Amino acid sequence: MESSRKKTMSLSLWIAAAMVAGILAGIAMWGSMGAKAAAAFTTAWLKPFGTIFINLLKFVVVPMVLLSIIDGVVQLGDVKKVGTIGIRTLIYFLVTTAIACVIGLALGTAFESQFPVLSMAQNQAFKAKAAPTVMQTIVNIFPDNMWKSFTSASMLQVIFIAIIFGGGILLAGEKGKPTAVLVRSMEEVMMKVMMMIINVSPVGVFCLMAWVVASQGPSIVTSLALVIGVAYIGYIIHAFVVYSLSAKIFADMHPADFFRGIMPAFLFAFTSTSSLATLPISMECADKLGVKREVSSFVLPLGATVNMDGTAIYQCVATVFLARCMGMHLTGTQLVTVVLTATLASIGTAGTSGAGTIMLAMVLEAVGIDPIYIGIIFGADRIFDMGRTSLNVIGDISCSVCVNKWYNAGTVGINERSDG
Ligand code: ASP
User: Is the pTM of this model over 0.85?
Assistant: First the structure.
């Protein structure tokens, strides 16, 4: 684990260096060639490499979402075994993630007017398609042809297919097990494919950053700092309001004690940017906070895989920011779509470094934003990721202390708990 941490650290340094180099190259071209010529040159020669990188990211999204959600549903089969505790845990995860989305969207919208409209996006006047009505959005969730959903990357349909397919595996019982194993194995393979793509990201980041800065001017860098700041405000509000309240109300624990207890996991998550890598420390923290082992060993691994409040906030803030860059204002229906897809995307996000940005492509696609613009924020992803992983991990521990309280009070029981 140590060596993989070192590896992700040095990759992050490469990405950060590529971002800085891209910004400097962009400023140099913008200053020496003039805005128009710099934009034309970088659009012709650098943007295509960025496009290749983003295409690769988009290409893993459909299989990643499909496989990880099928796998998640199959895991839920085991959740039933642990009775009400599983349901309470899932409700806690879902409600806090939905609140995180609302916080992210509210903050994004509050700062929307400060975000830039990029000149290169304006001339596309983003295919101003009439936004679908709520009923159309609901009807569109149900596919009439599975392959069409995959090829057009209709994410809500892909999610629907994944859920129903996972249900099918569970219902098939013994006969479904080989498919479940196959799905798990394919998911592992896709994770490796994703890592290969992330490994070439410094090249993509350099090209996209140089293109954006050369066509837009250095002011885009200030906008980047602003959107990072907005995401962090969201992380902080969520931590101090939602988790303080739930510690106090549900776990009868003073918020200061809670935050003191989670400190080691927070620091480790902040530096490792991986919920899964932080899992052993989270277990330790939960222990110190008095959570029984049978509760933490169920809630924390599940949380590290599906509960990502920080990722949800990041995806919502980034969606509003990138929509604005495209000259788009999200309608009410689109905001609902963002809450839905960001909740599901965060569930589908693996608890590893940088996974949330891959899933961001899915949220963007769902509201018709071209994922190429992820390039604007990708270079700074490590900074976003440090905050969002910390929040993800704190959320998992917060759930474990609440569930522990209910468990101790006897309101929930671990039924039919298998000893495995
Ligand atoms: N790095 C995050 C985590 O491990 C996932 C993400 O990229 O949003 O929780």
Answer: no
